[in-house]
Amino acid sequence: MQLVLPKGKAGVTVHVAPSILFFIGPFLRFFVFKTESGMEIILNGQAKQITDDYTVGQLVSELFPSGKGIAVAINHSVVPKSDWPTRQLSPNDQLTLITATQGG
User: Fold this and answer.
1) Choosing a second label site near 3 at 20 to 30 A (CA), which of 65, 86, 89, 96?
2) Which domains does the chain have, with CATH numbers?
């Protein structure tokens, strides 16, 4: 049996005997941080799959099309709105998105 990385990804082909794969297969998910469809981030405490080249600006515009009244923090550091278009997200980033609301 062969384990092959997705097309377009740099890597090696590993030949594994089926009997060995039976034992290590369940543990492989602990060693894979990026998936074929992208990567995982933590958004307001929930896991979310995104593509590898996602920016804060793309995420905010997807979730809040108006983009008004939003604050973003990544790994407990506030990201200025001027940085959103260029700030790339990384695997396992912890994002907190806060929206302003009216009240009294």
Assistant:
1) 89
2) 2-99 (3.10.20.30)
Q: How far apart are CA 102 and CA 104, in angstroms?
A: 7
Answer whether 31's CB lies under 8 Å from 65's CB.
no
DSSP string spanning 37-95? TEEEEEETTEEEEE-TT-BHHHHHHHH-TT-TTEEEEETTEE--GGGTTT-B--TT-EE
CA pair distance 24, 30, nearest whole angstrom = 11
Q: Is the pTM of this model over 0.90?
A: no
Beta-carbon contacts of 5 under 8 Å, excluding residues fewer than 6 positions away, are 11, 12
34-73 pLDDT per residue, tens: 445 589 999 999 999 988 888 999 999 999 888 788 999 9
